[in-house]
Structure formats: structure tokens, C-alpha cells
Write a structure and sequence with these properties.
- Microtubule inner protein component of sperm flagellar doublet microtubules.
- InterPro entries: DM10_dom (IPR006602), EF-hand-dom_pair (IPR011992), EFHC1/EFHC2/EFHB (IPR040193).
- Microtubule inner protein (MIP) part of the dynein-decorated doublet microtubules (DMTs) in cilia axoneme, which is required for motile cilia beating.
- One of its GO terms (cellular component) is sperm flagellum.
- With 748 residues, the protein is an alpha+beta fold.
- Among the domains are: 34 residues, no CATH class; 126 residues, Roll (PH-domain like), CATH 2.30.29.170; 103 residues, PH-domain like (Roll); 118 residues, PH-domain like (Roll); 70 residues.
- Helix content is 23%, strand content 22%.
- It contains 18 helices and 26 strands.
- Strands 6-5-4-3-8-7 form a six-stranded antiparallel β-sheet, covered by helices on one side. A six-stranded antiparallel β-sheet has the order 12-11-10-9-16-15, covered by helices on one side.
- A hairpin with a 2-residue loop joins β7 and β8.
- The longest helix has 15 residues.
- The chain is elongated.
Length: 748
């Protein structure tokens, strides 16, 4: 309660109440009009009679040794003391005095004091701020001085305006503060109990109502833990019982109402009916099954009687039995009873808690301080795998079809590798077929010169053998082996396991392949096959350039001999040799360590590129050949159209115009060939002299000599290919670059 009329409660709290009137005037402070006292010192700096000067020095440290005021160091610091006051009650017979508790706050920054009384429910007294914050003077005869921190200690009596406050304790900050400034702190004391409050409490305890109120505060728990569920992975081992097995369960504990539900994890083909719940949600008793009870025996409240009023709006009430003599106490599982490794009783079934989720681990770690969450193996050990034996192949149908008839009662078709078929099947210009040229290895003179084309289909690992038809050879030719998978030789026919078939990795140039008893020597492969094998060198090690070159590098001791051999083979000093000479040199130096496939891989790496474009005479001769076959002679009409388009009479037209006129006159030349031919007659400005162009194309007026087919180089491994010469992999090899990479040698 504020005391505005007591001494010390002046408007300016920094100026104490003097015994005489002090002159004041209206002034402005922080843009606010207020009364300001004229507390200027007298003549010579001496105070006037009754005037107090602010001390130049404070007993509190200022912090950094500067001239800063003390309130800077103690700003926002408050000392709190607990005190009580014996307040006399003269007009009541029930009590003579009353104990009232207060909080005394001392502010070290300006030595001001504030006294507050905590509010007490149903006290009937005005409580709150008793003395507002200001400097309080000492009791007479020292009323010209004010309270400082030295006057405060536990056990001291503080007289504020005639009221005695007894300090019995203080907070921890205040204790530390007083000890630091050198105050010897007294031990805390006991606050006496108010006799009226004691008598009132005893009276209320004796006056319990006939209908006691029993609160069941579940709302707070619901609002705090709603939606939060603990999850445990459990195991119920029922294998000792007849037809029992291990059952995997999931236990959910709902923190909002301490209920439990259990679900069962059913494996596939378990033979059990799928149930939604193994145990429906509810409180789980620890000692179950407890038995069968009558209705009303298990309840939270015991009702003695129900009554209603006699008015029109009857108010129904009830009387409760507070003693509950027949109440049955049941213990239910709580969250503190659940942990990994604990076995709980679920209505007579022993359920082991094996593991929990991350939320459950964090909950127990924060609430109970549990850090060990080592899980227990709940999966049953796998049964010993019984080796399944199949009967041997009967010889009817394919091996896969016979195996499918042994797996199920109803035979089904063998499932092919559809993914491999989609990835490796041919599309567009990509054939996905490996083709090899081969010859038959036999002692029969009639079959020695027979050549074949072996095709391997990557989509389904099948092979096909075709023999080119030769006129007057005495052999039919054509299909030698239809497309099918080929077994590897040396396997038993009637066996339980599936047979092994020839794979793409078994085919390479120089290999000998046994196809149904016929031996074939692979002589060469087409361009697509060689490129495919080099790109997939992990499957085809003989197409790995690094491995093949390393075998040649191992012959470093023969470096001088290798150089001499290549120099002798290059008689014209062109820095390159043909493929046949290159193959013979490498085979002789490595003494059979290299295969033909490895030689081809090295030769393809160091091959000399062909000329980028053929000669102009060759292109014109090819154009004449196409025009002769189609009997095209309409050159006069083409020239007339060009003259008509040439409005400026310069005898030249743009390239696109001449191409358009050729297409409109149906010149029998392909688009790419026509573009190549036009590019040879085009000048720097993109113009073509149409008279000279069509004069050159006129095969009747300006004939060109006929083209002669260039003979292919023959391989040393096969002298004659029966009028079907096999092109060599490369024509010429740059052996100088090979010597640099292999031995570090250079050609002089």
C-alpha cells in the first residue's frame, strides 16, 4: 500500500525531505515540464544551512576505475530480502496479531527501497505495493540520513515509517552480493506462522463436505501428449506350445491416456487370418488375467446415493463414498515399466520388448535418462536350406521346359530374359549382331576351302552359321545351322543341371569354336563387331588395347631387332607398313603370345586414316555410270532452264538453284552424292558455272574411262577366299608411333 503522505515520498526521489522549505521553480527535463529544486551550493562551494550535497565518492566500485557514476555499475541489479511484519489486530477476539509477509527490494544504483506484499487469496487485505520505490530515511534521531546497503542483513529489524520489518532470508544473488562487499551474512531464520491462517486451515480440514469432490485431471495430460505414441517391436514366442510359433508384434503406448494396443505382423503365406488388432486399445493390467468382476466393482468413484430436487427443473446430484472400502486396486502398465529387454504380461502371454523407434528412444532419454537402447534379435533363425534335387533331363523338348515340369504341378513356359532382349535387340542401324568370317577345320580335302559367316545374336545368345553360295563349287551353300543356342562340347546329355552354352566372350578372331562337332577357325570380323568388342573390353580381354600393348612392351630386350625389322619392311620410307607385314612382324617377335584379335586391336589403334575424299575424276566416272544405267540424256533442257534462271547473264547460278533444277528434272543421283559433286564446282562466293557443270556430266559428249575395281589385300592366314576376298581390318599401320609408345624409339 502506497504511503504518499509519509516523509520521504517527495516528487523528486533523489532529494530527501528537508526541515525547511526549499525553493523550487518550473523547468523542463526530457521535454517534460516539472518542478526542479534550486539545490545550488552557497558562496565558496559550501552548502546552505540544511542543504545536502551529493557525495563525491561512493563505497561501491565503479567498475573500470573511471569517473563514471555508481548507477552505471549497478544498473538493473536488485537485492531481494524476505521479511515479515507483526500487525496488531485490536478489534477482533479471534486473533491479537497477524503475520504478514513482505518482499523488500533494495536498488544499489541509487539506494532506493521498495516494499511489496505478495497477494494472498481471500485475505481481505489490500496487498501489492506497500511502499513505492524511493529513498527511505532512518528512524529518529537519524532522520537526516537514509538507508544504505550496510543496514541490511538477515535478522535485522528495518523500521520504515514507524513499521518494523524483520528480515529472515534473502535470495542467492543477494547473498553473493553482500559477501563480495564484505558483509558477514547471518544464517537464515524461520518465519513464524500466522495463527489465524493456521486456525482457518484446521477448520477447513474439519469441514469436508458430504459429497466430496474428486478431481480426475486428465485434460492436462491429454493436451500435452496428444498424438504422441511410443512404439515397441515385440516378440511372443509360443513355440513350446502345440502348433505354436514365434509371433512378431508391435506395441503402441499412448501417452495421452496411458493405454496400450498391440498389432501383429503376419508374414506372407502364414496361414493365419489377418486381424486388425492383436489387443484392442485399453489399459493393460500387470497381473492378468485378474478374473471376472461384477459390474461396478472396478470404477474410479463409488456412488452412495442419487437424489433430485422437488422443483420443476430437477437438479440431479449424487453422494460419493470417500472411503471406498470395496474398491479393487489394479496396477496397470505405465511408460516407466516399458524398456527394451523387459517381458510384459499381456493377459497371460509373455511378450518380450526387443526394439523401439527413434521417438521412443528420445522420449526415454529426455525423461528417464536412459542411453542404452541395444536391440534384441526378434527374427527367427532361418531354417536350414534343403537342397532341391531335380531328376535328369529326359531328352524330350528343351532342358528348360523339362525343368519347369518339375517345379510346379502345372507346367508353365520358361520365362526368357525380357530385359536383356529389349536392351540388346537390334534397332535402326544398330544390328546388335556379332559376325565373324570362319573356315572349317577338317581333314577332308573337299571341305578345306569352305568359308562360313558365323552370326551371334546378343539379344538371346543364339548363333547362326551361313555358307556363301559359290558357283560351280559343287556345294549347295546357304544356311548351315539355323538360329539356336549352341552347347559347349564335353557335357553330359542326361543330367539334372542345365547345360552351358557358347557365350559372346568365347568368340574372338583366332579362336577355334566347336559347333555341334564341327570345328571353325575365326579368321576376321566386321567393323561393328570389332567396335563392340573394343567398347566392352571388360568382357573381351583380347580387345583391350592396354593389355595387348603390354605384351609387346615385354619384348623390350628386342628393341633394336624390332626397329630393324620395321625399317626393312618399309622399303620406300613411308613411315608405315601394310597389315600383312605388320601381323607377321608381331607374331614372329612375340613367339605366339599374341592372338589375332590382339594384333587387330593394336593395328586399329595405329592405323593410317584413309583419304578424306576421292579424286574428282573418280566422282565424275561414278556419276556417268549412274546416268548410263538410267539412260539420262536430258542435258539440253537443264541448260535451257539455267539460262532462263540467269537473268543477269553471268553464266553462274547459286548452288541451291542448280540443286533445285536437278531435282525438278529428276537427275538420277542420290542427294549426298549430288551435294558432294556440287561442292567440287562451287567457287568462293557459292556460285557454280552451270555450263561447265552440265558439260562434265554429259556422258555422251564427254565420256570418262570406266572404273576398275581395286583389288583387296589378301591375308597371309588365308591365301584364297573363293572369289570372296575378305577385307583386312586396316590397310596401313603407322609403326613409328607404335615404336614411340612401346619402346621409346624414334625413326631416324
Amino acid at each position: 500500500m502506497a504511503l504518499p503522505l509519509l516523509p520521504g515520498n517527495s516528487f523528486n526521489r533523489n532529494v530527501g525531505k528537508e526541515k525547511f522549505h526549499k525553493s523550487q521553480h518550473w523547468g523542463f527535463c526530457n521535454n517534460v515540464r516539472m518542478l526542479v529544486s534550486d539545490d545550488k551550493p552557497g558562496i565558496g562551494g559550501q552548502p546552505l544551512p540544511g542543504q545536502k550535497m551529493k557525495p563525491k565518492y561512493s563505497r561501491f566500485p565503479t567498475g573500470d576505475g573511471t569517473d563514471a557514476p555508481s548507477w552505471v555499475a549497478f544498473d538493473k541489479q536488485v537485492l531481494s530480502f524476505d521479511a515479515y511484519l507483526e500487525d496488531e489486530v485490536p478489534d477482533k477476539s479471534q486473533e491479537n496479531y497477524r503475520i504478514r509477509r513482505y518482499k523488500i527490494y533494495f536498488y544499489p544504483e541509487d539506494d532506493t527501497i521498495q516494499v511489496n506484499e505478495p497477494e494472498l487469496k481471500n485475505s481481505g487485505l489490500p496487498q501489492g505495493t506497500s511502499i513505492r520505490r524511493h529513498r527511505i530515511p532512518l528512524p529518529p534521531p537519524d532522520e537526516d540520513q537514509f538507508y544504505t546497503v550496510d543496514h541490511f542483513n538477515i535478522g535485522n529489524d528495518m523500521v520504515f515509517y514507524g513499521r518494523t520489518f524483520k528480515i529472515y532470508d534473502c535470495d542467492t544473488f543477494t547473498q553473493n552480493f553482500l559477501r563480495k562487499i564484505g558483509v558477514k551474512l547471518n544464517p537464515p531464520r524461520q518465519c513464524p506462522e500466522d495463527p489465524y491462517m493456521k486456525a482457518r486451515r484446521e477448520m477447513l480440514e474439519c469441514m469436508e463436505p458430504l459429497r466430496p469432490y474428486e478431481p480426475f485431471d486428465t485434460l492436462g495430460q491429454f493436451l500435452e501428449y496428444d498424438g504422441k505414441v511410443l512404439r515397441f517391436f515385440c516378440l511372443w514366442d509360443d513355440s513350446p506350445s502345440l502348433f505354436g510359433d514365434r509371433r512378431e508384434l508391435i506395441l503402441h503406448y499412448f501417452l495421452s491416456d496411458d493405454t496400450i494396443e498391440i498389432k501383429e505382423l503376419l508374414p506372407h503365406n502364414s496361414g493365419r487370418d489377418a486381424m486388425s488388432l492383436f489387443l484392442r486399445r485399453g489399459k493393460l493390467p500387470k497381473y492378468g488375467p485378474p478374473g471376472v468382476y461384477q459390474p461396478g466393482q472396478i470404477t474410479d468413484r463409488t456412488v452412495l446415493n442419487v437424489y433430485g430436487g422437488l422443483t420443476q427443473t430437477q437438479v440431479i446430484g449424487f453422494l460419493l463414498d470417500k472411503y471406498k472400502p470395496e474398491k479393487l486396486n489394479q496396477e496397470f502398465y505405465k511408460d516407466s515399466d516399458l524398456s527394451i529387454g523387459t517381458t510384459i504380461n499381456v493377459w497371460g502371454r509373455k511378450v518380450l520388448l526387443c526394439d523401439c523407434d527413434e521417438f521412443t528412444k528420445s522420449y526415454y532419454k529426455s525423461k528417464y535418462g536412459i542411453k542404452n537402447f541395444t536391440s534384441i534379435q526378434r527374427k527367427a533363425p532361418p531354417p536350414p536350406k534343403i537342397e532341391r534335387k531335380f531328376p535328369p533331363y529326359t531328352g524330350f523338348g528343351s532342358e528348360e521346359d523339362s525343368l519347369r515340369s518339375c517345379i510346379g504341378l502345372v507346367p508353365t513356359l520358361h520365362k526368357k530374359n525380357f530385359k536383356k532382349f529389349m536392351e540388346e535387340d537390334s534397332y535402326g542401324n544398330v544390328s546388335k549382331i556379332l559376325r565373324f568370317f570362319a573356315k572349317l577345320i577338317t581333314d577332308k580335302c573337299a571341305d578345306v576351302d569352305r568359308l562360313f559367316v558365323i552370326s551371334y545374336f546378343l539379344s538371346d545368345d543364339t548363333m547362326q552359321v551361313f555358307e556363301p553360295i559359290e558357283e560351280n563349287s559343287g556345294l549347295t551353300g546357304g544356311k548351315f545351322l539355323k538360329r539356336s543356342r549352341v552347347k559347349k562340347p564335353g557335357q553330359e546329355i542326361f543330367k539334372s543341371e542345365l547345360s552351358e552354352y557358347i557365350k559372346a566372350e568365347d568368340l574372338y578372331v583366332g579362336a577355334t569354336v566347336n559347333i555341334n562337332g564341327y570345328l571353325f577357325l575365326l579368321l576376321n570380323a566386321d567393323e561393328y563387331t570389332l567396335n563392340y568388342m573394343e567398347k566392352n573390353s571388360d568382357k573381351f580381354p583380347f580387345s583391350n588395347f592396354e593389355l595387348a600393348l603390354q605384351k609387346v612392351k615385354d619384348e623390350e630386350s628386342k628393341s633394336i631387332e624390332i626397329k630393324q625389322v620395321f625399317t626393312a619392311a618399309d622399303c620406300k620410307h613411308t613411315m608405315m607398313v601394310d597389315y600383312n607385314a605388320f601381323r607377321e612382324i608381331l607374331m614372329s617377335l612375340t613367339v605366339g603370345r599374341l592372338t589375332d584379335q590382339e594384333v587387330i586391336t593394336i593395328a586399329r589403334h595405329y592405323r593410317v586414316p584413309d583419304k578424306p575424299c576421292p579424286d574428282l575424276d573418280v566422282i565424275i566416272a561414278q556419276a556417268h555410270e549412274q546416268l548410263k544405267k538410267n539412260d539420262f540424256e536430258n542435258f539440253d533442257k537443264l541448260l535451257a532452264n539455267c539460262v532462263y534462271q540467269d537473268r543477269e547473264k553471268k553464266n553462274v547460278l547459286p548452288r541451291k538453284d542448280i540443286r533445285r533444277l536437278c531435282k525438278s528434272s529428276r537427275l538420277p543421283l542420290k542427294d549426298d552424292f549430288l551435294e558432294s559433286l556440287l561442292s567440287r564446282f562451287e567457287d568462293s562466293e557459292g556460285q557454280i558455272n552451270y555450263e561447265s557443270f552440265f558439260c562434265v556430266l554429259n556422258w555422251r559428249a564427254n565420256p570418262m574411262p570406266e572404273l576398275k575395281a581395286q583389288p583387296y589385300l589378301k591375308e597371309r592366314c588365308e591365301e584364297v577366299w573363293l572369289r570372296m576376298p575378305s577385307p583386312v581390318p586396316v590397310k596401313y599401320i603407322d609403326y613409328v608411333t607404335l615404336l614411340k609408345d612401346m619402346l621409346g624409339l624414334e625413326e631416324d
